[in-house]
Amino acid sequence: METHKSPLQIARSGYQPKIPLILKGNVALKYGEPTESVADQKEIKSLFPKTYGLPVITFEEGVEVQYPEISVGVILSGGQAPGGHNVIAGLFDGLKKLNPKNKLYGFLDGPSGLVDHKYVELTSEIIDEYRNTGGFDIIGSGRTKLEQEWQFEQGAEICTKLKIKAIVIIGGDDSNTNACVLAEYYAQKNYPIQVIGCPKTIDGDLKNEMIETSFGFDTACKVYSELIGNIQRDASSAKKYWHFIRLMGRSASHITLECALQSQPNITLISEEVEGKNLSLNDIVEYIVKIIVNRANYGVNFGTVLIPEGLIEFIPGMKKLIQELNDLLANNDDFVALNTDDEKRQYIKGMLSHETSQLYRSLPKGIARQLAMDRDPHGNVQVSLIETEKLLIEMVAKRLAQLKAEGVYKGVFSAISHFFGYEGRCAIPSNLDANYTYTLGMVASLLIAEGKTGYMASVKNLTAAPEEWIACGVPLTMLMNMEKRNKKMKPVIQKALVKLDGAPFQYFESHREEWADEKVSYIYPGPIQYFGPTEVCDMPTKTLLIEHGKF
């Protein structure tokens, strides 16, 4: 339990999250039409016969109901995201409102707590210490996947012991996929255990027609955008550095796009665009160099470049190189027996296809080493460890040196690299995330009280005032499709990538040249505002505003 608090944390502890007006009184469930999965309907239906085809649930005004006493378990799963504590607070308050005797148990350190029977009863004293705070430290998180029957049975055993009626899993697409599988398993076994999911990930790739945004995305982007704005103010003051900034988001570029919309940097790379236009690494370098040279011609030798974490995997040539390396080096005793980095590099050059060998030879030695030597336990390249920003700096510097020798470039190139990742995952949640997550917790409590399983708590209309938000229950199977994972087709919740024909990207694309020119078009967003005018403090992301036609 926390004992030391900053003045801001003390002030935030008294903040009462805003919720939809409909949830302030008694509610009744309103059912929509039966649903289908987003794709692969036949396969998904056969795998989830008990939970497939459920209707979307919304809420309307109802009469007071006397709900029986129940116990509920909650799990934080995967990476941290601002607002997780408020989901638990909303769930706790919602359960207590339904019946003061209800109990909430937190399983410790993620899904493994359910399997290993490690838990704590969450009391009002514990909950009150963590309201409106960042982090997942109230019960901890973990990345254990719930996929095996023995895990499900272990979970059922502890639920029976504690008389737990429902489990709430707070996580991203993989965690909610596990929640869907768990709900189906317990339904098929006729175990009296419900499973409800909540949409979490700062990456923003858990979104669709029913999930407008995942919680934590708003806060993380505001944190990163503040840092980018600070750097841009420094750059325009010092007038001598190019800042290459890599941002979290391996599977999708939502964070990078949102931060670009908030801060208007000179160059922004979007992974989905790189893949869609089949751009090579050299194409990307030439694009960056062209802008640097143009600004230098006006005497402007500074700027900012935003780079999504997963860019490397979206460059078609690099993707092919990584795949060849994975196939070549997995369980390769001949490679392991080589003594020096140079021997290993020469071995790889001789084994790759001509096209990928040429690409491999063009890479800086440090990056080539990361691709070949730094591998995970399965023998695969650890893409998340590749410092793409440093790769681009080195290749851009080399190209600019060539242009300077040719008399084309007369500027001065000094670059600084940054990676913004963990800085945003446990920030104190913004007002939007504090309100949103608390509402998600309350929605989960109502779905549980009404006996629902296989649902995800959802909140829509997020660009309106919280009182006008629309609370929903979305069938998890509605979000599923079949994808190849570890060479096998598996049911998973579909990730949402940046849509190149979507309004946010289209807005960005229409302004990118203006932001890249010799004028300083930077925006300095400043820190997250918790107190003050509503139009400042409760502002949603630019992505949401553009998608809803309000920007």
Distance between the termini: 42 Å
Number of helices: 23
Q: Please, what is the average pLDDT?
A: 95
- The shape, in one word, is globular
Radius of gyration: 25 Å
- Major beta sheet summary: 9 strands, mixed
| Fraction in helix | 40-55%
- Give the strand content: 15-25%
Taking pLDDT < 50 over at least 5 consecutive residues as the criterion, the unreliable ranges are none
The CATH first-level class of the domain at 217-314 and 381-425 and 501-547 comes to Alpha Beta
Number of strands: 15
CATH topology of the domain at 217-314 and 381-425 and 501-547: Rossmann fold
Strand order of the largest sheet: 1-2-13-12-7-6-3-4-5
CATH architecture of the domain at 217-314 and 381-425 and 501-547: 3-Layer(aba) Sandwich
Protein structure class: alpha/beta
Summarize this, please?
The chain has helices spanning about 5-15, 40-45, 85-100, 110-115, 125-130, 150-160, 175-190, 215-240, 255-265, 270-275, 280-295, 310-315, 315-330, 335, 340-350, 355-360, 365-375, 390-405, 420-425, 430-450, 505-515, 535, 540-545, and strands at about 25-35, 55-60, 70-75, 105, 120, 165-170, 195-200, 240-245, 265-270, 305-310, 415-420, 455-460, 470-475, 480-485, 490-495. With about 550 residues, it is of the alpha/beta class.
